[in-house]
Design brief:
It comes from human gut metagenome. The chain is an alpha/beta fold. The protein has helices at residues 62-72, 87-92, 115-120, 136-144, 148-151, 185-191, 207-210, 226-235, 251-257, 286-298, 300-313, 319-331; strands at residues 3-7, 13-19, 25-31, 37-42, 48-52, 55-59, 79-82, 100-104, 128-133, 154-156, 172-176, 196-200, 218-221, 238-241, 261-265, 280-281. It has 3 domains: 3-60; 79-160 and 325-331, no CATH class; 172-313, Rossmann fold (3-Layer(aba) Sandwich).
């Protein structure tokens, strides 16, 4: 492969990446609809060349190019929201008109406050900066390493998620898999006859999975279509993340967006961001998961508690809280 072309949804080519003989990207070119090349980004030397208003501009870094672009916009930039301490921060750091910068910190500090974060929290800067941390554990780690004065510019927030329905606390259980390795699933089916188990696969099902159709509380969906998947997300209120092997698409995230209670085995959980620790169970002790199913089936309050733990684990917040924190950060 020597090059890769990029096209808009309207079908015209707007960029091309060129590769060397070893398959390494060495250059990316951007062009107008008419095919005129206007930007050259060199991945080897990390410089950028821009053709603009009849002149060629050379920038020794992508950051310098962004700074030039911002200056040519011709607007007074007073407030900026950004989400990384690399290029975006470096590009706005010396903006003469900047009054307030808000960093949404979504990375993991690993116990050390990044140097650029310490710089932006310095009280001696011309511009003021604040940090909003959606992850509660990360927020605590960051604050522990800052002075009291620096802590005043750090705010705890959370994430806003798209939700497509409310949980109705039914006993409809969904599992999506491309593997017939669903440890103890038959045991769960036998123990919980009051639950309806829906098992879907994008591929043909093996005889091992197909044999589960003998149970009245099982529905199988081989070669499942996307429309059926969406229907099941609406119908079901529990997602069992128990399949070994790869996750189908973003099944766990989709289950979360549909407000399904997600429970699974610690050893095979596919997206730990959305599965509360309390809803993860040992694969070699099926009684843990079985007891949890019995518990939530008999007591709606327990179902609600596990859902709340799931929300807290995902750092979900309502829109009102998100807006309030943002206003506080901008005015602080």
């Amino acid at each position: 492969m020597r090059s890769v072309d990029y096209y808009t949804k309207e079908g015209f080519k707007f960029a091309e990446t060129v590769y060397d003989l070893l398959g390494n990207a060495i250059l990316k070119k951007y062009m107008t609809r008419e095919g005129k090349e206007v930007i050259y980004e060199n991945y080897v030397t990390n410089d950028v060349v821009v053709e603009y208003k009849g002149k060629s501009y050379f920038f020794d870094s992508y950051t310098e190019w962004i700074k030039f672009y911002l200056s040519e916009m011709g607007i007074e930039i007073k407030e900026v929201i950004f989400n990384t301490l690399s290029t975006p921060f470096l590009a706005i750091y010396h903006l003469p008109t900047l009054k307030k910068g808000i960093l949404f910190w979504q990375e993991q500090s690993q116990g050390y406050v990044p140097g650029n974060m310490k710089v932006m929290l310095s009280p001696n800067l011309q511009s003021r900066f604040a940090v909003i941390v959606p992850n509660q554990n990360e927020y605590k780690l960051i604050k522990e390493q800052l002075s009291r004065e620096e802590q005043q510019a750090v705010y705890a927030s959370g994430y806003l998620y798209d939700t497509y329905k409310r949980n109705h606390y039914s006993k409809n259980v969904l599992t999506l898999t491309n593997s017939d390795q669903l440890p103890h699933v038959e045991t769960l089916i036998r123990l919980h006859k009051d639950y309806q188990f829906h098992i879907g696969a994008k591929t043909e099902m093996s005889s091992k999975l197909l044999s589960l159709s003998q149970y009245e509380n099982v529905k199988l969906y081989p070669i499942i279509k996307e429309q059926t998947v969406q229907t099941l997300y609406q119908q079901c209120d529990i997602y069992l993340d128990i399949n070994e092997g790869n996750e189908i698409g973003n099944a766990v995230r989709s289950a979360y967006n549909h407000q399904l209670l997600i429970m699974g085995y610690k050893e095979v959980v596919h997206n730990r961001d959305f599965v509360a620790i309390e809803n993860q169970f040992l694969v070699n002790d099926i009684s843990q998961l079985s007891n949890a199913l019995k518990e939530i089936g008999n007591h709606r309050g327990q179902f609600e508690t596990r859902l709340a733990l799931q929300q807290r684990h995902a750092n979900a917040v309502p829109v009102s809280t998100f807006k309030y924190v943002l206003v506080q950060a901008l005015s602080g």
